[in-house]
Amino acid sequence: MANKRFFTEEHEWIEVLEAKRIRIGITDHAQDEMGDVVFVELPFEDDEFEAGEDFAMVESVKSTSEIFIPAAGHVVAVNEQLEDEPELVNDSPEDEGWIAEFELEEDFDGSELMDRAAYDEYLDTL
C-alpha cells in the first residue's frame, strides 16, 4: 500500500509512505481556489493530534484554511521549505508543497477516503 494516495472532501491528499506513516498536503484544486499562498503555519515535530484535528493552517490572499489529519498520530517531519517559500503550495501542491508527515497509532488503510478517480468525479460535482 506504500505510495498510495487518498483524497478528502476538504481537498487534502494523504500519501501512505508506510503502513503507519503518511504525508499530507492540499490538492491542486484547493490551491487554485485559495489563490496565492502567502503563509503556512506548520506543526512542530513530535506534536500529537487526534483523528480529524487540524494540524496546520494555509493562508492565502483570499482565505485561511485549516488542514486536518485523518487518523491519530504525531508529526515526524514538516516541510520547512514552506517557511521561506509558501508559494510551493501553489507551484507544486501535490509534490514539493507537502505540509507534514505523521507516524500514526494504527495502520492506515484510507478506506473512508477517495482514490484519485473518485476524487476527480467528486470535483465534477462541485
Strand and helix map with partners:
Layout: E1 4-7, E2 12-18, E3 21-26, H1 28-34, E4 37-41, E5 48-49, E6 54-60, E7 64-68, E8 73-78, H2 81-84, H3 88-91, E9 100-104, H4 116-124
Antiparallel strand pairs: 1-2, 2-3, 3-9, 4-6, 5-8, 6-7, 8-9
Can you put this structure into words, describing what you see?
By secondary structure, the chain is of the alpha+beta class. Helix content is 19%, strand content 37%. The chain is built from four helices and nine strands; from the N terminus they run E-E-E-H-E-E-E-E-E-H-H-E-H. It has helices at residues 28-34, 81-84, 88-91, 116-124, and strands at residues 4-7, 12-18, 21-26, 37-41, 48-49, 54-60, 64-68, 73-78, 100-104. It has a six-stranded antiparallel sheet with strand order 1-2-3-9-8-5. Strands 4-6-7 form a three-stranded antiparallel sheet. A hairpin with a 4-residue loop joins strand 1 (4-7) and strand 2 (12-18). The longest helix has 9 residues, at 116-124. It is globular. The mean pLDDT is 96.
Strand percent estimate: 35-45%
Tally of extended strands? Answer: 9
**Class based on secondary structure composition and strand pairing:** alpha+beta
pLDDT averaged over residues: 96
- What low-confidence regions span 5 or more consecutive residues with pLDDT below 50? none
Described by the principal axes of the CA atoms, the overall outline is globular
Strand order of the largest sheet: 1-2-3-9-8-5
Function: The glycine cleavage system catalyzes the degradation of glycine. The H protein shuttles the methylamine group of glycine from the P protein to the T protein.
Pfam families: GCV_H
Modified residues (N6-lipoyllysine): 62
Domain Lipoyl-binding: 21-103
